[in-house]
TrEMBL record:
Highest taxon listed in the record's lineage: Bacteria
Keyword Nucleotide-binding annotated: no
Protein name, UniProt field: Amino acid transporter
InterPro entries assigned: AA/rel_permease1 (IPR002293), AminoAcid_Transporter (IPR050598)
Keyword vocabulary terms for this entry: Membrane, Transmembrane, Transmembrane helix
Topology versus the membrane: Multi-pass membrane protein
Species whose genome carries this gene: Adhaeribacter aerolatus
GO cellular component: membrane
UniProt GO molecular function: L-amino acid transmembrane transporter activity
One Pfam match: AA_permease_2
Amino acid sequence: MRDKPSGLNRTLGLGLVVVVVVGNIIGSGVYKKIAPMASELPSPGWVLLCWLLGGIITLFGALSNAEVAGLLADTGGEYAYYKKIYNRFFAFIFGWSLFTVIQTAAISSLAYVFAQSLNSLGPLPTLLPGLASFNIGGIFYPFADFSVKLTAIFLILGLTLVNTRGIRAGAGISTGILILVSVGILLIVVFGLSSPQAELSQSWQFATTNQQSVTPGAIFTALLSAFWAYQGWAAIGYVGGEIKDATRKIPRGIAIGVFSVIIVYLLINATYLALLPVPVLAEIHAAGNKIAAVEAVRSFWGSRGAFFISILILVTTLGCAHATILASCRTYFAMAREGLFFKPAAKLNRVKTPANSLWFQCTWACLLVLSGTFDQLTDMIIFAVFIYYGATTLGVFILRRKMPDAPRPYKVWGYPVVPAFMILFCAALVINTFFARPREAMLGLVLMLTGVPLYWWFNRQKTVPETVEQV
C-alpha cells in the first residue's frame, strides 16, 4: 500500500516509532498507580497479577489495533480508521473525545504529577490561598493547590512551544528522555531488589492483609489504575502520516513497544512490593500527597534516594507529556482538514507542523488542569478510551468482511479469540466503571457527547478546506 499524501513530512523510522509508543506509555503510572491498586486489592500477589493481566489485555488490544493500522495507516489514527470502518459521525465523536477527554486529560494529569514532584523537591510558593475552598458544584476546586496547577500549566505551554518546531526534533527529545528514564528504572530494580530491605517472596503472596476475599469489582477497579499506566500506545497512529512505510512499521512498533513496557512494569512493581508491604502502600494512597515510588526508594537509599526518584519522576512525566503533546494534535489537524474541527487547526507552519492544532490542544489541557485531581482525570480517561479500544477491535471483524482481499502486512495473532475477548473485556470495564466510579464515568460521557451538536454545527459550515494551508 502506498503512503497517502498528507502535507506532512514522512521522517520517522521503526526505531522512532518504538520510541513514540514507549514514550507515550511510560509516565506517571509507573510511579503512582501501585498505591491505589493496593488500596483496592490488599494482596501483593493480586496487585502484581493485575499488572500482568492489564499488560496482556493491553497487548491484545494493541495487536488488534495493529492489524487495522497496518491496513489503514494514516494521520489521525483511529479517526482515519473509523471513517472506513463505521462512518464520518463516529469518527468525529472519537476525535472530539480525544480532544475533550482522552488525550488532553492525559497531558493535564502528566503535567500535574510533574508539578507535584517538583513541589516535593522544594515547596512551591503558596498562591491564592483564600480561594482554595472555592468550588463549582462541590466537584471542581480550580484554585486548590494552585501553585502546583500553575506549574503544570507552564509545563504544557512550554512543551507545546517546543513541538511547534517539528516532529523530528520532538522525537529526538523523546529518545533522549526515554534513555534517561530506562537507566533510572533499571537502577531502582537492581539496587532495590538487592537491598537488605527487599523481601521478594512477599510480592507473590496472594493472601489478603485484611482477611477478606478479593472480588471481581475490586479487580476491575484496580485495573483502572493499571490501564492508566499502559495507556498511550495507540498515539502512534495519530502520526501515521509522518512515518515511512507506515503500514508495516506501525504494527511492528506497537508490538515491540507494548511488550517491552509489560516487562518493565512487572520488574519495577515487583520491586515496590518487595520493599513496601501492601498496608503501607494503602496508607500512601490515603495520604494523597505521597508517591509510592518515592517511599520505596527512600526505604533503601534514604533522603538521597527520595531526591533521585523525584528527579526521575520529573524526567519521566516530562518525556511522556512531551510525547503525548507531539502525537495527539495530529488527529485534530486531520479533522480540521475535512471541516470537522476549528478551521485554523488545518494550517501547517513553516516546518510543516500543525501548530494551531497544538495550541488548541494546549488551551483545553490547561483548563483541565484546573478542573480536577490526578486520579479523577485518569479514571475519566480510562472509561472513555476503552469504549474506543473496543470499537477498534470490533473493526478487525468488520474489515475482514468489508475488505477480505486487501493486503494486510500484519494479521492479529489468535484471531478470532483474541479480538473477541478484548471486545468483551472493554464492555465489562466500561459497565463496571459506571458503578465503581460513577462521577468520572458521567463526566467523561458528558464531555464526549458535547460532540453531537458540534458535529451538526461543523457540517453546516460551507467551506471545507481542500488543501493544506501554511502559516
